[in-house]
Amino acid sequence: MLLGAVDLGSNSFRVEIGRVEGERIVTQSYWKETVRLAGGFDKSGALTPEIQARALAALARFNERLAGLPPERVRAVGTQAMRVATNAQDFLRKAQNVLGYPIDILSGHEEARLVFKGCAQTLPPSDKRRLVVDIGGASTEMIIGQGLDAKRYESYRIGCVNTSIRFFADGRITAKSLERATTACAAELEESMTTFGAGNYDEAYGSAGTFGAVSDICRALGWTDGVVRPEHLEKLRRMLLDMRDISEISFPGLKEDRREVIAGGIAVLTAVYRVLGIEEMRPASGALRVGLLYDLLGRVSNRDTRDVSIETLMEASRLDREQANRVANIAQAIYSTLSSEPDPEKVRYLRWAALLHECGMIISSSRYHRHGHYIVSNADMPGFSRLEQDRLAALVLAQRGTLKKVEDKLDTLISTETVLALRLAVIFAHARKDVALPVMDAKRTAEGIEMRMEEVWLNAHPLTDYLLREETEFWSKIGRHLSIQKF
Where are the membrane-spanning stretches (predicted)? Predict the structure, then answer.
């Protein structure tokens, strides 16, 4: 089995195809292009037409690299530059069309979790507490974990590209500009000291391009075997000052595509060492794209990280598990009636939403669907992208009441069939006890959805019958046709 990972980073775009061998993933092909997405913002915070064109050209080549892999075997993600771009959604539509696969925009926390997952898979097994620092083009992720699991993680909005643009835009490198850059980055990272500082970890690793570049320089200069210590950063600082200009930078072991952003990268890395009191850091391969591959392997092997997140949120919400499972089972049964060819992905989201549909009750039993929407939208849910979390939250919101609140999301973010299945499941389970569903069938017509339900059953359950008739009115108020007839 082949799996593909596409990392639309703020500095570089990368695609990796891995071959699954048991529990391992072996790299079959890898391709990287320097796009510098974080360097392509206009004054309004939008990605410029020029940077979009460069990015889309790279993605067209990536499409060829992926060579027709099925969508369920490919995961493509955007990071900090796409998180903050004011025209991110417009660019995302173009990018998905050119790449030929869906693209998720990761939250900073999810990016950090996946970075650690990727590094942990490529490092020797250990029970030690490991700190991993990933300096990207527009953000820096810090993670502490043990084994294969990240325990604490955070993302900070400083990287090699945005720092280089902010402090070295004219190309000149002076003692003042370098110190200003380092101090500003340290100020951004100051709050990380308590969680990630010395004493919280046993060994430290650096991943991604900036640390890899600095490690390569130290090795090329004969200073170390790749380990980076504070004195090495000080030597590099002095060498940078002697070079005076970005165009004059020439370090042994430094790749040409890193020259324009290495000054900003060294400023960020120096700030990390100062704030966290790091004595030495070793290189770790893997990072985000490998984390994506292993996370994808879990999804296709029924070891989905998202299932763990759902379970964790159910536990934290202290909800009625018996009712949650009851509604989930009914919703799945109704969805199979509504859809002649049930979509496995929609079934998965429907079940997750049903399991969490009462999580908002931890705040209040009144308007709990709205509280649930807020919780699911804002909770830290490892494994879920922003879009996936929004889809799940929208389903939780849609479970009851008027449909005006989700009208603009129907058949775009969430499907009509999954919303109707969840709403009907909540109705059938209103008594909070097991119920044998009536015989029913359904079909899509030009007007909408027509359902037929067993008359004897409905007559024996007058409250449910009333709620079902009320449900048809909710749909008519947004111009959707739902007919429920007795037979």
Answer: none
What is the edge-to-edge ordering of all strands in the sheet holding 140-146? Answer: 149-156, 140-146, 130-135, 203-207, 282-283
Residue 342: what pLDDT? Answer: 85
Taking residues 453-482, what's their average pLDDT?
A: 95
Domain boundaries, the chain: 2-107+290-298, 123-284, 304-435
User: Cα–Cα distance between 60 and 99 in angstroms, integer?
Assistant: 6
Three-state DSSP class for residue 80? helix
Name residue, tokens 């070079």: 243
2-107+290-298 is a CATH 3.10.310.10 domain: no
180 vs 187: CA distance, rounded Å? 11
C-alpha 236/C-alpha 250 separation (Å) is 11
> Is pTM, for the whole model, over 0.90?
no
Q: What is the three-state SS of 414-480?
A: ECHHHHHHHHHHHHHCCCCCCCCCCCEEEEECCCEEEEEECHHHHHHCHHHHHHHHHHHHHHHCCCC
Cα–Cα dist 241/249, whole Å: 10
How far apart CA 166 and CA 140 sit, in angstroms, is 16
| CB 392 within 8 Å of CB 386 | no
pLDDT at 374 > cutoff 90? yes
| Identical fold, 2-107+290-298 and 304-435 | no
Average pLDDT over residues 304-311: 90
Q: Is the pLDDT confidence value at 302 over 80? A: no
Per the CATH hierarchy, to which homologous superfamily does domain 304-435 belong?
Hypothetical protein af1432 (1.10.3210.10)
CB count in 10 Å sphere of residue 61? 13
Residue 276: CB atoms within 10 A of its CB come to 22
Q: Read off the pLDDT of residues 222-268 as tens digits, 9 standing for 90 and up.
A: 999 989 999 999 999 999 999 989 999 999 999 888 999 999 999 99
**How far is Cα 141 from Cα 107, in angstroms, rounded to an integer?**
11
- CATH architecture label of 123-284: 2-Layer Sandwich (3.30)
- Of 434, 427, 429, 421, residue with least CA distance to 468: 427
What is the distance of C-alpha 177 from the center of its chain? 34
